[in-house]
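quick one, 662 residues, struct below
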Amino acid sequence: MIDPMNHKMLSKSKNRHKSKRIYQLEQIGNARTVQLYADGFESLTKREKIFAYHLSKAAIAGRTIAIDQTGRDAVTIMRLCQEIILHPKGVPRPTLNAIRNYTKLFWINNGMYDYATARKFVPSCTAQEFREALSIAEGNEGNQSANRREMIEMPVKVERTMFDLDYLPVVTDKTPGHDFVAQSANNFYEGLTTAEVESWSRSGGEEYPLNSKVVKKNGLIEEIPWRAGTDRIPAGLYARELSEVISNLERARRVASNKNQKKAIELLIKYFKTGNSEDCEKFNINWVKYSSNVDFILGFIEVYMDPRGQKGKFESVVYFINKEQTHLMRTLASNAKYFEEHAPWDKRYKKTNISPPIANVVNVIVETGDAGPISAIGINLPNEQRIREKHGSKSILIHNIVEAYNESEPERLLEEFCFDQSEIRRAKKYTQVADDLHTGMHEVLGHASGKVSKGLPGNPADYLPGYYSTLEEARADLVALWNVFDRKLKTLRLVKSDEVGRAMYDAYVRNVFLQLRRIPAGEQLEEDHMKNRQMVVNYIMRNSDAIKVVRRRNKTYFHITDYNEMHRVVGDLLAEVMRIKAEGDFHAGKNLVDNYGLKINTSWRDEILKRVKKFKLSAYTGFVMPDLKPVVDGKNKIVDVRIEYPLDLTRQMLEYSDQPNP
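---
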C-alpha cells in the first residue's frame, strides 16, 4: 500500500467541469477535508450501479469495527460527541466548537489518535465543560437517545481516555525498549505483555491470528474471534456489525454479474460467519483470479496498527475501473516476469512461476475503516506471501483520490524545496510520469515480487514482529527506485528519458524532508510508510556520497549529486531487505529500521514547519465520499442508483452512524 503522503499526479481528467468544482472544504487542526468525485459512475450499467450500492452499504455497516479496534473507549466517545452535535441548543459556543472540531478529527482518524504521529489528540475544552455540554444535550427537547441516563454516567468511565494525553498516549508503540503490546493503546490485546502473547502464540494458542482480540482474564489467555457465527459456531466479537455487513453482501451477490465474483462474495460471507483462517484464504485465492468492472476490498486486512503485525484492521473499498488510465498498470503487470528476473536480490529469493497480477487504475466510490476517510493512493492485495507466490495478486492505483489531492494542493512547494532551477524544470516536466511509475511499480512489481527461503516456514511477518510492515513498504519503494532506470521501460514506451528516473529520485528524497511537517512534536516516527522512506534515504546518505545536505540562505536542501551511485546503493539495500524478509532475519531488520528510520532530525523538522507555514498545508486529508442514493419503483424495488456529493463531513459521518442530521 502507498500512503497518502506519497500521493502522485496522474494525467489530467478530461472533465471540463472540474475547474468549477469545490474540492477543499475545511481545515481542522492538523487535517483538512476534501470532497471526492467519482467521474464515470453514471456510465456504469444499472446493474453495476445497484451492485456498487449494496457493496457500499456493506462497507458502511462495518465502519464501527475499525473505530472500536482503535481503542476500547473509542465507540463510546464517538457516540457521546455525536449526541452533543445532534442536540447543541444551549451548549456554550466555545465548548460546542471545541467538541465539533474534536469530533471531526475523530471521524477522519477513525478514533482519537493522529494518523501521522500515532499519538492521542484531545478536545480543547475541559472534561468538566464536556460533561456540562452532555448534560445540556441530554435535556434538550427532541433527544430520543435510548440510553439517556448513560449519557451522564459514561463520561466518568471514558474521561481519562478522552482527556489525559499521558494515558495510553500512542495507538501503536514500536519504540525500541518499550513493550510493544502492553504500551500500545489499540484494542487488539488486553492485559498482556508482548512476551506473554508471543509465548502463547508459539505454543499454538493463536487460532485466529488475523481476526481476533486476545485478552488475559484471571491469569488465563483467551482469544475472542471476530465473526458473526452460525447455527453451530458461536458468535464472536463484532457479530452484530458483521451480520449487517453480510446482509448487504447477500444483496450484492444476487445482482453480481460476474460468476467468479459472486463465488468470492459467498466465500467472504462464510469467512465472516466462521472467522476461520482457511475460509479467509479460500476467499483471497478466488478474489485474485477474476477481474470485474466494479469490485471491492473488504475485511480484516492491513496489519499496520498491530505492533506484532498480525491483527487486521477492518477496511472496505468499493471501486470501478477507470479504463482511460489503466494502460500503465497492465503493461507493468504483463512484464512482471522480466522485472523479477532482473531484480538485484539473490536468485534463491526470485519467483520463477509468475502469475501476472491483475492491475487497474480505478475510481473509488466509498472507503471506510482503515481505508477511509484517509485514503491510500495505491493498494496491492492479498498480503499473505504464500498466496502472492502461488496465485498472484491484484493492484489498484486510485485515480480520483490522486486527482482530488492535485486539485486541492498548492504547486508552489516545488520552488520552495527544489535545490535549483534544473530540479524545478525536471520536476515540472517529468514528475507526473515518474510518480505514476513509482506508484505502479511499488504496487504491481514491488509487493507482488520475491519469495521466501525454503527454510522459512510460515509467514515472514511472524518472524519480524514490529518491523515487517516498515520493511515490506521499503522493499516495494526500492523495487520502483531500482527499476526506473531499466531500459525495458523505454522499450515499453512508458518512459522516454532517464530524466524520469532522476525526477523520481529527486521527489523521493525531497519527500523525506517534507514529511517531517507531519510530526510537530517528538523526535521519532511511528507510521510505517514514513519510517520506510526515511530509512531508505538515510541509508543512502550514510553509505554513499550520492546525496548532499546543503545549507543556502539559511535553508536546508537535499541535493542528489550522483544518480548512478544512488541507484547502486538502492540495489544493495533492496537485496538486503529482500534477504531479511526471505530469511525472517529479525535482528538485521531491527537494526536497519532503528538505525536509519526511527529518529528524526528535530532541527530539520522545526525548520520545515516554519517554511511550510505560509502554504497552510495540512498533515493529512480526510475525504468526504460520494453518496449513493437508490432509485426505487412503485414496489420499492431498486431500479437505479444516482450519485451525489455532500460537501459536508459532519452530514456524511452522522449518516454513516445512522443518525439524523441536526
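Residues 627 and 644 are 5 Å apart (CA to CA).
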